[in-house]
């Protein structure tokens, strides 16, 4: 029998969850009681349901995951939790956590990840709480967790409880007067079973392996040394018949091999080069925790996430899951280009525009009004779970290709020919000094909300844009009527073009400015996005005075 110890502690400042959980440098989490305080606050925010509950625990394999899993086991045991489902060695992708919470109807789960941020002792770690619907906790819960961290005085722990997280199976402990069970689960099994229900695996398998009518469709899948490695091997190699040469970086590393595990043109440049130079029909990469995806076609033809969402929206009938559930509405985050809106309009489906962050999609899905959604930040997913899901997106694309017989590029060309094209780009200025960025946003908000800004003209080269609307985006959730204010500055012009500026809520130090530009063309659809959007980018730089405030001549990442 193990005993509960109550430890006195003091609050730490700044334990406020951002866009997606609490993210800080590993060294911040290593401070005495820092992690314990936050875990206890998560449990206290769930006070009513915690005794006798079941929780899912897992993370993306980055540095500190195992140690924090061990702390969570000891602290949940001391707080009356009845059972934990823990991924073997602490490994669970973010969508797999969501899948387990929903399948086993648990009170929620704790996800250990800083997503696409670099890992290792000098980099980032993160802790996120997901609710019983499998999705990231909504603002009112994360605010409550934060409030509790500012007042915490003690936490409970069973210091000498020893649980082996490398062995699949059930381990039971007697903690004072109650039983506490930890079930170590295969990290991939439930998720893979679910994907096999959602998609037509034999059909995707015959695409990849080829048939009498069609040569093998050669894929290159890059796990970027993140958590998806074991999932990719099981799904692509064992189930879909791809070879070991079709997958890369499938061993999760605690520092992602020193790389930045973010699937975009900059950080997944290796994959882009390999697909460009090799004989591949399709490339996909996923981020550290497996919720983001990048899709490219032959010759490294790049599919923007905004287009990816629109194409999938237009083709859901090829996926068995949607044949069963039907398709309710669509949604995108505000900065995401509006390509999917055109699909919604054509099919007469509801369309929602929410603030940045997956947590804003959950209520709509729970209410049965949303089937497919996405963010420009390489996030795509459906109501099969309550997280975005990188592997799901790749399998959805392969389903579309298997059904249409077209290449990735042809699918896109056909889509643009039918709907027109929303050119989109995002400029990121990473790790700038915080104060000048905050000042830039303050001044910009003042300027664009000043009477007289609407109707003003802004020119670059031979293009002139007239402002139609400018504000700081706010959103009222149609289901629970909760309001999220100040979600990004937007300037919308008469021709529908948009400039959006916001500060990142996922960084662990300094400020990251994100500048989003999008513009619609009905017929001129084959241009280069950077060329087509240049005038609007210049206007954005003029209006925001970004260079003056950040001191940056160029962004760190262009998407
Ligand atoms: C970023 C993305 C956002 C995404 C989040 C978590 O947040 O922009 O779309 O939901 O990561 O993956 P940001 O850093 O912009 O706050
Ligand atoms: Zn992620």
Provide a descriptive summary of the structure in words.
The chain folds into three domains: 5-187, 3-Layer(aba) Sandwich (Alpha-D-Glucose-1,6-Bisphosphate, Chain A, domain 3), CATH 3.40.120.10; 190-419, Alpha-D-Glucose-1,6-Bisphosphate, subunit A, domain 3 (Alpha-D-Glucose-1,6-Bisphosphate, Chain A, domain 3), CATH 3.40.120.10; 421-558, Alpha-D-phosphohexomutase, C-terminal domain (TATA-Binding Protein, 2-Layer Sandwich), CATH 3.30.310.50. The mean pLDDT is 95. It is α/β, with parallel strands linked by helices. The strands form six sheets. It has a seven-stranded mixed beta sheet with strand order 2-6-5-3-4-9-8, sandwiched between helices. The protein contains 19 helices and 27 strands. Residues 94, 115-116, 287, 289, 291-292 line the site of zinc ion. The site of zinc ion (ZN) has 7 residues, from loops.
Write a brief structural summary.
By secondary structure, this protein is of the alpha/beta class. It has three domains: 5-187, Alpha-D-Glucose-1,6-Bisphosphate, subunit A, domain 3 (Alpha-D-Glucose-1,6-Bisphosphate, Chain A, domain 3); 190-419, Alpha-D-Glucose-1,6-Bisphosphate, Chain A, domain 3, CATH 3.40.120.10; 421-558, 2-Layer Sandwich (TATA-Binding Protein). A hairpin with a 6-residue loop joins strand 22 (475-476) and strand 23.
């Amino acid at each position: 029998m193990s005993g509960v110890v109550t430890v006195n502690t003091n609050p730490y400042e700044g334990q406020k969850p951002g866009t997606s959980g609490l993210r800080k440098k590993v060294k911040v989490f290593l401070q005495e009681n820092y992690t314990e305080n936050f875990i206890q606050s998560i449990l206290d925010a769930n006070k009513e349901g915690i005794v006798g509950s079941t929780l899912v625990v897992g993370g993306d394999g980055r540095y500190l995951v195992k140690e924090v899993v061990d702390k969570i086991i000891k602290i949940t045991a001391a707080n009356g939790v009845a059972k934990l489902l823990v991924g073997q060695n602490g490994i669970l992708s973010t969508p797999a956590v969501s899948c387990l919470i929903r399948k086993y109807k648990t009170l929620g789960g704790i996800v250990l990840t800083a997503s696409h941020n670099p890992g290792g002792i000098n980099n980032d770690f993160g802790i996120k709480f997901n609710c019983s619907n499998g999705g990231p906790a909504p603002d009112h819960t994360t605010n409550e967790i934060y409030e509790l961290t500012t007042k915490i005085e003690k936490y409970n722990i069973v210091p000498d409880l020893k649980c082996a997280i490398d062995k699949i199976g059930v381990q039971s402990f007697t903690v004072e007067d109650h039983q506490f069970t930890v079930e170590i689960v295969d990290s991939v099994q439930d998720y893979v079973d679910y994907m096999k229900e959602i998609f037509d695996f034999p059909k995707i398998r015959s695409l990849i392996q080829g048939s009498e009518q069609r040569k093998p469709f050669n894929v290159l899948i890059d796990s970027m040394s993140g958590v998806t490695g074991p999932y990719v091997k099981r799904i692509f190699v064992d189930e879909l018949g791809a070879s070991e040469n079709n997958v890369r970086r499938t061993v999760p590393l605690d520092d992602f091999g020193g790389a930045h595990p973010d699937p975009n043109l900059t950080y997944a440049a290796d994959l882009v080069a390999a697909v460009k130079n090799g004989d591949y029909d399709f490339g996909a990469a996923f981020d550290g925790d497996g919720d983001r995806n990048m899709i490219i076609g032959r010759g490294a033809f790049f599919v923007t996430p905004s287009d990816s969402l629109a194409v999938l929206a237009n083709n859901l009938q090829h996926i068995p899951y949607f044949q069963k559930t039907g398709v309710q509405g669509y949604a995108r985050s505000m900065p995401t280009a509006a390509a999917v809106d055109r699909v919604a309009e054509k099919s007469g489906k509801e369309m929602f525009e929410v603030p940045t962050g997956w947590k804003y999609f959950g209520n709509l899905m729970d209410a049965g009004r949303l089937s497919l959604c996405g963010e420009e930040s390489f996030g795509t997913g459906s109501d099969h779970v309550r997280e975005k899901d990188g592997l799901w997106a790749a399998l959805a694309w392969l389903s579309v290709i298997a059904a249409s017989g077209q290449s990735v590029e042809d699918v896109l060309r056909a889509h643009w020919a039918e709907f027109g094209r929303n050119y989109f780009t995002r400029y990121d200025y990473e790790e700038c000094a915080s104060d000048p960025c905050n000042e830039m946003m303050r001044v910009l908000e003042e300027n664009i909300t000043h009477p007289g800004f609407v109707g003003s003209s802004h020119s670059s080269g031979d293009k002139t844009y007239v402002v139609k609307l400018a504000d700081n985006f706010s959103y009222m959730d149609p289901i629970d009527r909760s309001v999220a204010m100040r979600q990004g500055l937007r300037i919308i012009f008469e021709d529908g073009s948009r400039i959006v500026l916001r500060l990142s809520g996922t960084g662990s130090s300094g400020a990251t400015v994100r500048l989003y530009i999008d513009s619609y063309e009905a017929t001129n659809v084959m241009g280069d996005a950077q060329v087509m959007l240049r005038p609007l980018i210049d206007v954005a730089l003029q209006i925001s005075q970004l260079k003056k405030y950040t001191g940056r001549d160029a962004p760190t990442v262009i998407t």
